[in-house]
Amino acid sequence: MSSPFDQIIVGSDVEFADDAELSLLETLDHVLNRGLVIAGEITIAVADVDLIFVGLNVLVSSVETANEVLRERGKRPTLSAGLTEAE
Amino acid sequence: MKLYAYCVAECLSYRDETIPGLADRLVRYIEVEELIVAVSEFQSDNVGVTRQNILRHDAVVRRVLTQTTPLPFRFGTLVTEESLRSFVTARRNALLERLALVHDAVEMSVKIIWQQIGDDPPPIASQSELGVGAAFLQSKRDELRGNERLATQANEIAEWLAGGLQDLIRKQVVNIQPTQKLVIAGSYLIDRSSESGFRGSVSQLESQRPELHFLTSGPWPPYTFANIDLEFETQFGVS
After folding, report:
1. How far does A20 lie from chain B, in Å, by closest CA?
2. Closest by Cβ to B87, choosing from A9, A12, A38
3. What is the pLDDT of residues B156-176, one digit of tens each?
4. What is the pTM of this model?
5. ipTM here
6. In Å, how far are A78, B7, B120, B165 from A33, measured between CA atoms?
7. Which residue of A has its CA nearest to B200?
8. Top-tier CATH class for B106-220
């Protein structure tokens, strides 16, 4: 079976160079928000979750202005950076 | 010591015990009531939301998915072996029903991002012609009219998307948010064999509406279709 990491497709007129970041955000969206829940048994370190939502917002807002975001990549706190710091 | 739970499956002909899980602990398998749960030992009381942990979780579930379609646990599920066994035993039938639903299926994701389309409705009167109170009421009215218009457009897109995919999907969960740029987030449960057909259909739909941005991903383990407690809660009105 193929991996979704190789399979993310962005709309034809959007130039989104960083597929790895998109893949991670999609994985976060699936893994964090969904899945079988055992009531009361989930214990995640929530301190980093804000970063994830920031990242998702960046994803959504940046699709229309991908080139601009990519130019300013060094100026903004990215999801990737936040997660790397947490590791 | 607690266990980190990855997924539950009905049968695994080969149990790969070489997969590194969270905290570099190898994955092992617990058999309960003919169901198999992939777990690894976890010493801490908290699971950090880190890139490595998230990717490890998904990688373990995905490895099981190569053999059979499991029900993934939500990220961060820490349990004692006793409580895990109790959970599976108590919900065996519900788990089996849910496993039957996702049998030989995968999840595909389609997100649609838009620049809200359509012209703004013409104002009834210019701001300069109105008093402060009337101007406020008009702005609220315009806002409501705008939201209604967006909702109509968003629902029309959702129906169009559903119509184009309906022959391929077993089950779907679609969130519509007309006032957001991410207007539609759809999760679709499809047969494994339908993946290329699904992608082809999405591409065809995409070509019909060039003003919309599509983000398609998959195949995923059926994260959106795994939970049994949420449906119970919804059914009985508990939010």
Report:
1. 12
2. A38
3. 999 999 999 999 999 999 999
4. 0.75
5. 0.75
6. 20, 15, 35, 24
7. A9
8. alpha beta
